[in-house]
């Protein structure tokens, strides 16, 4: 079943993607096509099958429980579009 | 005398040790070769010439000092641009990371640097490793060295092309759904996908966290083994790296007549179905016969849920990607698109700077995880993933490894799947199952089709048995010479 324009716009909003009307129309078609294909999974009865979560590791590697120095603030701020007083600077949240 | 860049990694190691040439010679020859071919191939997103030459000189000085036993001292290598190297740009093939210079080096890369490698550059990739052709790179497609009108595969297409074209003897790639094995197959080189958790992912830009693995590409299994042995093993910086010992993979011993005696190899019938290029099937079956001739026992096996791997993958990988890529918001790194408030910055930066495939996957993932759809999509995919894993577990009761085609066809023309994302996804139909089950796999060249395009054989092994895959690929390469062929450039 194809997605509606409203559904595509809602998904884009949840994903924080600004899309133009052309893009919405194109993604609507492509996403519907892909979702139709993956609906194939419903053919299988998985009532008694447990989910696989994660990559199926034998044992996780844990580091020693002690404090360590991380990267310096300066190194972390170097790639920020805007920074001030050792902090990331953002545009206004509210008018 | 052939060019220095024609040497394999192990030949380079030997020549450096004997003093036949210096690392400076080797790295200069590498940089010259890259400069000569980049206009036609575009395998690289960044070339680190000054730092590479500096490192080469340091390697030469160190070699003169007694007792420097670093195994890869002075060997040039390239790194896929989704792995961080301190001080070198890391774009992930995306405009959203344009200009980003990471402040630390990935553990996999750091271990190689500690072992002596010289990094000559960062290789092209589909944006955030999402793709099978490098056509999704925001910085232009890489061309296949065997036919410049065709794709090299992807997403590690830059690494595969650079190795195939003899720009570098080895390169790092990453494999989330086939991104090392598929380009290795399409470019006729050897590519190893490691077991989930085998190699640290600290410094690997996250795509699908339950699937992502770091791998290596080279011309021979022996060279790939040399890289693998250095980077494998648990890392305190990555809690998903597994605390499992790394067996020594020494392939240097004299070749035996039946080196694979006692090995049981399963050939899954589900990998020889609709849509496979007949020449691929012929070459793969012939390669299996070579393995039988080397002493292996070959039997038919079945992995009945294979056909569900693609839909499972295209729920799980986008779902994980939609969460992982939420971090790109124009606040902490990467460029920012101007807007009147913070929300506008999020929408505009992401809307304008993610390419279409990444946006598609973020939206599929967002949809699959959204209220009301979670159980029908993500929950069901996780349960079917269990069935796929069980298929492999059952087969590995009876065989030591599985042999199959890496891809249904050889390299396709640039632009062939342009308007059909699903057709592109089908390229990975034979590689996705190993990622879903967390298993190691290797692809290497076993012949050519009528257009002289390489054909790959894929071997899949039980968890943490990269040694078996490498040993088998090596035995095949000792008995055949497909891997020695070079594209005419």
- Percent of residues in β-strands of chain B: 5-15%
What is the arithmetic mean of pLDDT of chain B?
95
| Strand order in the sheet with the most strands of chain A | 1-2
Determine the fraction of residues in helical runs of chain B and give it as a percent range.
25-40%
Which secondary-structure class do the elements of chain A indicate?
mainly alpha
Cα distance, first to last residue of chain B?
Answer: 18 Å
Q: Roughly how much helix do the residues of chain A carry, as a percent range?
A: 25-40%
Shape descriptor of chain B reads: globular
What is the CATH superfamily of the domain at 5-43 in chain A? Glu-tRNAGln amidotransferase C subunit, N-terminal domain
Rg of chain B, nearest Å: 21 Å
Alpha carbon gyration radius of chain A: 23 Å
- Please state the average pLDDT score of chain A: 90
Largest sheet of chain B: 11 strands, mixed
Mind explaining what this structure looks like?
The complex is a heterodimer of chains A (95) and B (489). With 95 residues, chain A is mainly alpha-helical. Chain A contains three helices and two strands. Chain A has a two-stranded antiparallel sheet. The model of chain A has no long low-confidence stretch (mean pLDDT 90). Chain B folds into two domains: 4-262 and 399-484, Amidase signature (AS) enzymes, CATH 3.90.1300.10; 316-378, no CATH class. Chain B has 15 helices and eleven strands. Chain B has helices at residues 9-18, 23-41, 49-64, 107-114, 157-164, 181-187, 221-231, 278-293, 309-324, 342-353, 356-369, 375-395, 421-425, 432-437, 466-479, and strands at 44-47, 76-80, 118-123, 170-175, 190-193, 213-218, 264-268, 297-301, 401-405, 441-448, 454-460. Chain B has an eleven-stranded mixed β-sheet with strand order 1-3-2-4-6-5-10-11-9-7-8, sandwiched between helices. Classes of the chains: A mainly alpha (95), B alpha/beta (489). The interface between A and B is large, with 55 and 80 residues.
